[in-house]
């Protein structure tokens, strides 16, 4: 156990998160030898504090495709052009990954964003290797590829440009209407059965959305994005995730119905996951924003996670176990069938993958 350093709590963050941020907490990560904890010194003096600003840090990684052999994921490779996410979703299971950077899974996760400026070039190099075998590439599996900073950096757009040139299939998950910026690439790729998008919708309540996911697109904008993508010929589904017992699970059927009316072609659901540092962060959020039912929500989560806040086991980590989780799954299955979101979608085509041909007038550098 590391040493504890006590730090004074400023008035600006004592009453919950900063406006536009998911949390005001910045707990030490599990690798720290020293950690801090807040305390009130009793003087009742207003502290001068500055609203936390987003800062960007370059990632000098030499590889871009992450591989996995997880038995409960539908893909074996993914790209995350950003580490950390400015959306600030308090429930984000990726928060603990910031500990590997020596940063906090709390406020650091949503204000200290690591970006990969060479993402497109690195991807092209990977796809050009003679032994590369194509398979669907997932974008948005850890942090959102269309978080606010993407508007200026354009890393996701650069990745799509490379994938289109190689005729490489891609599947995107986002909670941002910013995906519509790249509708040109996605429509052309979808026409070849090379692209699919899923919008993550957690709630239809704008006030709850602002509290849980403060810088993500409003629910109505995500539903509108589903319609716009479908109108452009891009197969688009919905992911009702995460479902949080006692917080948003009552909306499950409404979310699927709204997504169906918007034109979604299929639906998925994931139960809330609270790995590592995320458990205390989410618990603090509950007591700040929903104090009257915080203990009940935590009890329901434990009932669905074999008495714990998190279950990391393959096969149950996405769905949970026990009566509550079973009933939730039954409700999802029934609603997906009712709103015609349960059909199997065609697999994206990997057979069209090819090396791009040089431009007809390209000249060899030696001549």
Work out the number of β strands: 12
Structural class: alpha/beta
Strand content: 5-15%
Rough shape? globular
Number of helices: 12
Looking across the biggest beta sheet, what order are the strands in?
4-5-8-9-10-11-12
CATH topology: pyruvate-formate lyase- activating enzyme
Order of helices and strands: EHEEEEEHEHEHHEHEHHEHEHHH
Largest sheet: 7 strands, mixed
Average pLDDT rating? 88
Our Rg estimate from Cα atoms comes to 22 Å
- Percent range of helical residues: 25-40%
Distance between the termini: 65 Å
- CATH class wording: Alpha Beta
Tell me the number of structural domains. 1
Pick out the low-confidence regions: 1-15
Notes on the protein architecture:
The chain is α/β, with parallel strands linked by helices. The protein has a single domain, classed as Alpha-Beta Horseshoe (pyruvate-formate lyase- activating enzyme). 30% of the residues lie in helices and 15% in strands. It is built from 12 helices and 12 strands. The protein has helices spanning 11-14, 107-111, 119-127, 150-153, 155-165, 183-190, 206-212, 219-231, 252-262, 278-289, 294-303, 323-338, and strands at residues 3-8, 34-39, 55-58, 66-67, 77-79, 82-83, 112-115, 137-139, 170-174, 195-200, 236-243, 267-271. The strands form 3 sheets. The protein has a 7-stranded mixed β-sheet with strand order 4-5-8-9-10-11-12. α6 links the parallel β9 and β10 (195-200). α9 (252-262) packs parallel to α12 (323-338). It is globular, with a radius of gyration of 22 Å. The termini are far apart. The model is unreliable at 1-15 (pLDDT under 50).
């Amino acid at each position: 156990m590391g040493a504890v350093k006590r730090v004074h709590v400023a008035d600006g963050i004592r009453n919950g998160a900063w406006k536009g941020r998911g949390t005001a907490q910045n707990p030490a990560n599990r690798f720290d030898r020293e950690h801090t904890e807040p305390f009130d010194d009793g003087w009742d003096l207003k502290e001068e504090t500055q609203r936390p600003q987003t800062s960007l840090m370059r990632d000098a990684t030499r590889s871009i495709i992450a591989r996995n052999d997880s038995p409960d994921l539908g893909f074996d490779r993914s790209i995350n052009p950003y580490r950390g996410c400015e959306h600030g979703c308090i429930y984000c299971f990726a928060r603990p990954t910031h500990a590997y950077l020596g940063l906090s899974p709390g406020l650091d996760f949503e204000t200290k964003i690591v970006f990969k400026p060479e993402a497109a070039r690195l991807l092209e190099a990977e796809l050009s290797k003679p032994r590369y075998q194509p398979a669907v590439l997932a974008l948005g599996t850890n942090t959102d590829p269309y978080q606010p900073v993407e508007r200026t950096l354009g890393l996701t757009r650069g990745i799509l440009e490379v994938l289109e040139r190689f005729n490489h299939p891609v599947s995107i998950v986002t909670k941002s209407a910013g995906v519509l910026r790249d509708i040109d690439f996605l429509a052309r790729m979808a026409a070849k059965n090379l692209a699919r998008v899923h919008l993550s919708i957690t709630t239809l309540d704008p006030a709850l959305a602002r509290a849980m996911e403060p810088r993500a697109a409003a629910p109505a904008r995500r539903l509108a994005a589903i319609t716009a993508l479908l109108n452009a010929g891009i197969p688009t589904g919905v992911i009702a995730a995460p479902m949080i017992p006692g917080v948003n699970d009552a909306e499950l059927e409404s979310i699927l119905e709204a997504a169906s009316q918007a034109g979604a072609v299929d639906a998925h659901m994931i139960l809330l996951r609270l790995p590592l540092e995320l458990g205390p962060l989410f618990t603090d959020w509950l007591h700040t924003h929903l104090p009257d039912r915080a203990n009940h929500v935590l009890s329901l989560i434990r009932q669905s996670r074999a008495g714990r806040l998190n279950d990391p086991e393959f096969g149950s980590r996405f769905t949970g176990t026990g009566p509550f989780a079973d009933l939730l799954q039954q409700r999802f299955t029934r609603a997906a069938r009712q709103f015609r979101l349960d059909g199997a979608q065609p697999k994206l085509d990997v057979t069209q993958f090819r090396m791009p041909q040089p431009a007809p007038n390209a000249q060899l550098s030696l001549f």
